[in-house]
Amino acid sequence: MTGGPGSGKTTLINALKENGYTCVEETGRKIIQQQTVQGGDALPWKDAVKYADLMLEKSINDYIRLKNYEDLCFFDRGIPDVLGYVRLTDLPENPDLFNNSQLYKYNTTVFVLPPWDEIYRNDNERKQDFQTAIDTFEMMRKTYSEIGYKLVEVPCTDVFHRLEFILDKV
Question: What separation in angstroms does the CA of 117 have from each of 1, 15, 60, 132?
Fold first, then answer.
């Protein structure tokens, strides 16, 4: 799953987990939490390059760990999200980032959650404004499409119907 911040991805991932599906949490949020506790600087507002490098490393590790998993598995963001983040924030784009996005391929169908102003909230890890959520959504759509994924937009509705929509598509 991909999309901008605050679009309901984590809520949907949690609902999938509650229904017995294997899910991988968003690496960016985990890194921010860990770096904050550790007093580290690999944070988007301190050292965005180090933050992106850690996201890529952890996303690849998550992919490799579950590569041969037999059942359905849902990822809250993936390796191409790091590429989209680097592009969105005008960080230097390492060619390995694009290559890794193509090398470590997820299922060809990716669910994309659009910006949804009604549910958008800031918190300790999400400091972006709503316009950044819109820009992120557009960049993720562009990046995933460029890599060859088929995007399925998840409707802005309650969690139950979003969950039902996704499970009907898989």
Answer: 19, 21, 31, 12
20: left (phi over 0), alpha (psi -120 to 50) or beta: left
3-class secondary structure, 3: strand
Quick check: 49 pLDDT over 60? yes
CATH class of 2-169: alpha beta
Average pLDDT, the chain: 91
Element (H, E) at 170: none
pLDDT band at 137; cut points 50, 70, 90: very high
pLDDT digits (tens, 9 = 90+) for 70-104: 899 999 999 999 999 999 999 998 888 999 999 99
Instruction: Give the C-alpha separation, 9 to 7, whole Å.
Output: 6
Distance CA 103, CA 100 (A): 5
Helix (H, G, I), strand (E, B) or coil at 150: strand
Q: Which two tokens stand for residue 13?
A: 């991932």
Q: What is the C-alpha separation between 112 and 160, in angstroms, rounded?
A: 17
State in Å, rounded, how far the first CA of the chain is from the last one.
Answer: 13
Residue that is written with structure tokens 């850690």 in the block: 54
Q: How many residues does the chain have?
A: 170
Give the whole-angstrom CA distance, residue 129 versus residue 36: 20
